[in-house]
Amino acid sequence: MAIWDTTDDAMIGLTQMNDSLGSEALGSKVLEGETFEDEAFEPESANNTHSLNSLTSTDRGNLPEETRRTLVQLLKGPYLSEQGFPTLWATLLRGEDVIREQLGNLFLDLVIDPTAGVAFVRNMESEERVLPKVVRSLQLTLLDTALVLYLREQLLNAEATGRRAFVGLSDMADTLGVYRNIAQTDQASFNKRVNASIKKMQERSVLQQTSEEGRFEISPVLRMIFDADQVIAVTKEIKNMISEGAGLIREPAGMEASLGSKDHEDPRESGVEP
Asked: What is the largest CA-CA distance in the chain?
């Protein structure tokens, strides 16, 4: 189960693009039967190849610096928020079309909620062709999934009354505790797995630590990860797995998340597909 597409960790090593410039792009191609006078050709000086937005002597980029920084933050992930990056957020809103175009060149879609003040990127999908996966999907265990669904419910309840969503460490532990009987493990091991699931949400900035110890704010980005149909389907699957006694911790719940993971993270611990 995944929450969001995080740029192949982008977050994550991302992808490397090669500027495959052909002779035509270099202006060296001569059409058959066509000649040019030497005096008519004026080689372009190195200075003329620089745009007004060049930052260094080797910079061939043409986007303003703030637009580039906004793109980088989106690629690093897990998401860009108005609260965390107000200047970059304003740049995103002003240059949304340009930023979408640049991300599209990388096979990425931009997901943005101006009201919630959050945006992130996910892999572009097509029913007609196979597209490269640029951002890595985070595989969630059933316990992770149960936590995500609980947090999403708390978020929607708070937003319905115009409030920000907060949750306590003990609330999350108690909610996941109902799965203890089918976890087939001792209490200490189960507690470690609960803590690992909570930590995973912190690392992806779904949970943000407040000034109060053991109390977190739930990011609005969580609402954008799954639509209502997905939530219904996954909830049904979880109930079926519980009733059948399926492995709670080891078996994925079929959901993936597209927020970013970290380069140094061990895939065996995070559940991220290599």
From this structure: 86
Please write the tens of the pLDDT for every residue from 55-111: 898 998 899 999 999 999 999 888 899 988 999 999 999 999 999 999 999 999 999
Q: Write out the residue range of the structural domain in which residue 224 sits.
A: 140-254
Structure tokens at 208: 């943000």
- Residue 195 placed within a domain: yes
Phi, psi of 137 (to 5 degrees): -90, 140
The tokens for 149 are 């669904």
Residue 55 lies in a domain: no
Q: Helical H runs in 95-141?
A: 96-104
Given a contact cutoff of 8 angstroms between Cβ atoms, the answer to whether 69 and 87 are in contact is no
| Residue 271 within a domain | no
**Which SS3 state, helix, strand or coil, does residue 229 take?**
helix
Domain count along the chain: 1
Report, in angstroms and rounded to the nearest whole number, the Rg of the chain calculated over CA atoms. Answer: 24
AA letter at 75: L
pLDDT in tens, 218-244: 998 888 876 666 677 777 766 666 666
CATH for 213? 1.10.10
Cβ neighbours for 55, distance < 8 A, ≥ 6 positions apart? 61, 65
Cα distance between the two ends of the chain: 15
CA pair distance 95, 177, nearest whole angstrom = 46
Q: Is the pTM of this model over 0.90?
A: no
C-beta separation of 46 from 71 below 8 A: no
In a domain, 262, yes or no: no
Residue 137 is encoded by which pair of tokens? Answer: 């999907």
